[in-house]
Amino acid sequence: MKYFISFALVLFLSTSFLQAQDSEPAYPSKYWSSGGEWIFSTGNVEGQNNVVRWSPVINLQNFLNFDRSQNFGWFTGVNLRNVGFIYDESPSIRKKFRTYNLGVPLGLKFGNLDKTFFYLGYELEMAFNYKEKTFVDERKTDKFNVWFSDRVNLFQSSVFAGVSLSNGTSIKFKYYPTGFFNQDFTISEMGQTMRPYENLQANIFYVSLSFDIFDRGEFSFGD
Asked: Where do the H-state alpha helices sit in 80-131?
């Protein structure tokens, strides 16, 4: 009986050791990861009362990760993002703007990639859908939606930096040096040509919250 117990104990310890070894990722490592994003944004419109905009949907992040070691890696991917801002044109008039963007990021990760690490990078985004709303005394008076609108810059550059915590929560800060509007856009009303965004310089800045966006999950693949 004692030999059986000894054998069972050795077998249990060996299996536990092999499972622990298998759970440790080998480097270099390549894998897909994905997740949503809660965005809190402002347009930083000078001279206006900027209002924080919360957009929890639809924001989808899909990353292709290349971890070179436990402490350094890089990533790219394809993202879908709801980006916009709100400001008060006067005490009674509120304007809301947003675009849906398709973005391709290129970023670096450094720190303990299994626990807490920092990341930063650049993302080029294409604004493919534009929406504008006007509220007067809290009542919506105008709204329109345009695909590939000339009212905004089609391609928008952005830079970002963030931290991924050991529990999988990620906090990101992002800034768009490209102006939101195409300030040369013209419309004709009553025989006159006007530029409605000529004096409206808006550069979006946002803070976002995500969960497990760099998780290896089940989408790893071999070298």
From this structure: none
